[in-house]
């Protein structure tokens, strides 16, 4: 059991038969009445984000989340097969569970798979990945490095905004957190 005094960003708790990750929290001590904790929680099963308020000192269960490094092998219909890099055990994850991560997922990429009592909750990609530009409009003479951007389709099918000087075949470093261009590789 943990209390609201133990809250920190990234901590996983079990509330109302759901697994939640604390995105942010704030201790509030009003002039009148008891203290409380305002928090923003993300449901690890559904991905929904919810604001929740707890009384100061309220107790709840900490969810025992395990993370293991796994390598993405291949897609099998609507499922995706990952292999544990230590035990070589393979698991299948339904595409619905990792919909947002699929746009940056490439074969043989290592990811963190999040497990709760052997139930797969999802995957965490590295913060940046290197991907090749599959298709983009050609740059026009006179375009500058600092002015404007254009859409580019990456090898995984993701579409991001890139500077005008990027052309098809370039390898780019992409931020997976906010789907933005970082630099050329």
UniProtKB/TrEMBL annotation:
Which Pfam families does this chain map to?
EFP (PF01132), EFP_N (PF08207), Elong-fact-P_C (PF09285)
Q: Does the keyword Protein biosynthesis apply?
A: yes
Please name the pathway.
Answer: Protein biosynthesis; polypeptide chain elongation
Query: What keywords does the record list, in alphabetical order?
Result: Cytoplasm, Elongation factor, Protein biosynthesis
Subcellular location(s) per record:
Cytoplasm
Name all Translation elongation factor P/YeiP central domain ranges: 67-121
Tagged with keyword Protease: no
Ranges where the Elongation factor P C-terminal domain occurs: 129-184
Single Gene Ontology MF annotation? translation elongation factor activity
Q: Which family does it belong to?
A: Belongs to the elongation factor P family.
Role, per record:
Involved in peptide bond synthesis. Stimulates efficient translation and peptide-bond synthesis on native or reconstituted 70S ribosomes in vitro. Probably functions indirectly by altering the affinity of the ribosome for aminoacyl-tRNA, thus increasing their reactivity as acceptors for peptidyl transferase.
What is this protein's record name? Elongation factor P
- Origin species, per record, is Lactiplantibacillus daowaiensis
Task: Identify the taxonomic lineage of the organism of origin.
Answer: Bacteria, Bacillati, Bacillota, Bacilli, Lactobacillales
């Amino acid at each position: 059991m943990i209390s609201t005094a133990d809250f920190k960003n990234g901590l996983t708790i079990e509330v109302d038969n759901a697994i939640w990750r604390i995105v942010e929290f704030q201790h509030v001590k009003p002039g009148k009445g008891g203290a409380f904790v305002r928090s923003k929680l993300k449901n690890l099963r559904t991905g929904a984000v919810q604001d929740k308020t707890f009384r100061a000192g309220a107790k709840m269960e900490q969810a025992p989340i395990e993370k293991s490094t796994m390598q993405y092998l291949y897609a099998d219909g609507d499922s995706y097969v990952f292999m544990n890099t230590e035990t070589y055990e393979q698991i299948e994850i339904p595409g619905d569970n990792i919909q947002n991560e699929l746009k940056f997922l490439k074969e043989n990429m290592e990811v963190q798979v999040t497990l709760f009592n052997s139930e797969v909750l999802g995957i965490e990609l590295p913060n940046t990945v290197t991907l090749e530009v599959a298709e983009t409009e050609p740059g026009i003479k006179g375009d500058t490095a600092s002015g404007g951007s254009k859409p580019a389709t990456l090898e995984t099918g993701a579409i991001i905004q890139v500077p005008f000087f990027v052309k098809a075949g370039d390898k780019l470093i992409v931020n997976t957190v906010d789907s933005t261009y970082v630099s050329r590789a």
